[in-house]
């Protein structure tokens, strides 16, 4: 983020506070309950969003060295992410090409080749089939070179590993004007110090929505982060499908004008990038929390919560553990409420969610989801 933008974002929130108003969209909005409960809708989202768009599946530090591997699930696909001896990252389907046995059961490790537990077909960590017992006699007419593990498009960028199951992987096009801001965060200099994988009985959109408004801070987070934030004061901007939200801390209003040159947005606000569809990067004063939604079903979502700290300070384990726990506790407050919402939505108690004018970010997010589900795709909607 350039310096002018940083100061403008601070000035904007200070002005809103001075005028005792809020960051308001034009109108109240509604979101139909079935968007959070219907299996059909979920299947469409999985097929047209989670399987088509570039997704952040891991931080590069999770497979830092040649031979490192991790397993991931991408919209129901079993992924094996490896770093080969050339240092390249590979996104492979973790399914043996013989009869489909899961090739690797360990969640993570370091191996240069993988042997299938059923008939010992052996693959390099770059995916090629190296050996298969009695192959020439048994598989006449087939070539080992055609039977490597299925590869998905994969790229390392902004410190993360991006994979696209079925669509393209043009990150310049996908991230667009936010690329400069993401580059400036130097996330390739960070390391995952802690990671949790909680599962929640709530739709993935409810969990994303919980992060992009400050209306609930003084209520739902009154005993944790609530006292450190202004009441219902946040702003947001869309960058194509993605969003940058600024949630104002109470310390911002105490900034002295004469120290303007030293103002640092991330010290006085939570800067949140919601990278469509389900990645949230919460930029805190000295670290970043990465929250990745991995939808399982209409009413079930797995979250990958990671604390990313500067490599040079990673040994300060106690500090990062404490920060991770604070983030986890705060998010758990949101998730308990998310599960409560999901249960009433599934009961049919209400027909719509209501988004107030200061919850415009939630409407913008939902409209982005809708746009991806039209037969012609988001571009056609944007051009309307
Ligand atoms: S299923 Fe893997 S070797 Fe047969
Ligand atoms: Fe919250």
SSE-based structural type: alpha+beta
* CATH homologous superfamily placement of the largest domain: Naphthalene 1,2-dioxygenase Alpha Subunit, Chain A, domain 1
**Which residues form runs of ≥5 with pLDDT under 50?**
380-384
Counting structural domains, the number is: 2
> How would a textbook summarize the main sheet?
8 strands, antiparallel
Calculate the terminal CA-CA distance, rounded to whole Å.
Answer: 30 Å
In CATH terms, what is the architecture of the largest domain?
Alpha-Beta Complex
Shape estimate? globular
CATH topology of the largest domain: Naphthalene 1,2-dioxygenase Alpha Subunit, Chain A, domain 1
Q: Mean pLDDT across all residues, rounded? A: 95
Commentary on this structure:
With 384 residues, the chain is an alpha+beta fold. The protein has 2 domains: 3-53 and 176-383, Naphthalene 1,2-dioxygenase Alpha Subunit, Chain A, domain 1; 55-164, Rieske [2Fe-2S] iron-sulphur domain (Rieske Iron-sulfur Protein). Helix content is 29%, strand content 30%. It has 12 helices and 20 strands. The strands form 4 sheets. Strands 12, 13, 14, 15, 16, 17, 18 and 19 form an 8-stranded antiparallel beta sheet that branches. A 7-stranded antiparallel beta sheet has the order 2-11-10-5-4-3-6, with no helix packed on it. A hairpin with a 4-residue loop joins strand 8 (122-124) and strand 9. The longest helix is centred in the C-terminal third of the chain and has 31 residues, at 317-347. It is globular and about 80 Å long. The two termini are 30 Å apart. The model is unreliable at 380-384 (pLDDT under 50). Bound molecules: FE2/S2 (inorganic) cluster and fe (ii) ion. FE2/S2 (inorganic) cluster is lined by residues 96, 98-99, 101, 116, 118-119, 121.
